């Protein structure tokens, strides 16, 4: 049976994630220090707090009107899983692709590992193929198998 303390911790983790994926991704990057550990590894690579901050700065440069819709989120022990969709208009450079003015809708999945109240590991999968297709970088004739 789940204890009250475990339920409170799970709810706290989900609140932290909701804030990051909405407020943080909208530009409130100052909150990153309270969420991520300097030991943070993203997909196995040491990133520190600067990793997620830089990723969002890049995204906001390419898609200044970005908005996020969380689809699913759950916690199991010290891990949180979230799937979301982010949308924006490609009005600046992003990922080496010059601005196209085209709208995008991108699926993103992340698993966060918490230790001592901070995120120490992120495993993430973002649909890069969709971004490249929607911005016109890849031709319509190319499709996912």
Write a brief caption for the model.
By secondary structure, the chain is of the alpha+beta class.
Characterization of this structure:
The chain has helices at residues 4-24, 32-35, 50-62, 128-134, and strands at 36-42, 45-46, 67-76, 79-89, 103-115, 118-126. By secondary structure, it is of the alpha+beta class. Strands 2-1-6-5-4-3 form a six-stranded mixed beta sheet. It is elongated and about 50 Å long. The termini are far apart. The relative contact order is 0.15.
Largest sheet: 6 strands, mixed
Order of helices and strands: HHEEHEEEEH
Average pLDDT value? 94
Structural class: alpha+beta
| Rg over C-alpha atoms, rounded to the nearest angstrom | 16 Å
Strand sequence of the main sheet, in spatial order? 2-1-6-5-4-3
Q: Indicate the overall shape.
A: elongated
Tally of alpha and pi helices:
4
- Contiguous low-pLDDT stretches (5 residues minimum) are none
How many β-strand stretches? 6
User: N-to-C terminal Cα separation, in Å?
Assistant: 43 Å
Amount of helix: 25-40%
What is the beta-strand fraction?
35-45%
């Amino acid at each position: 049976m789940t204890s009250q303390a475990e339920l409170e911790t799970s709810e706290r983790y989900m609140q932290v994630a909701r804030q990051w994926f909405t407020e943080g991704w909208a530009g409130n990057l100052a909150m990153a220090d309270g969420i991520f550990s300097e030991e943070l590894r993203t997909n196995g690579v040491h990133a520190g707090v600067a990793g997620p901050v830089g990723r969002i700065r890049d995204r906001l440069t390419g898609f200044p009107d970005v908005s996020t819709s969380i689809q699913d989120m759950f916690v199991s022990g010290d891990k949180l899983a979230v799937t979301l969709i982010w949308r924006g208009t490609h009005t600046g450079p992003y990922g080496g692709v010059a601005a196209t003015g085209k709208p995008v809708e991108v699926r993103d999945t992340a698993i966060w590992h918490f230790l001592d109240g901070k995120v120490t590991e992120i495993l993430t999968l973002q649909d890069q193929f969709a971004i490249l297709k929607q911005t016109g970088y890849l031709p319509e004739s190319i499709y996912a198998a």
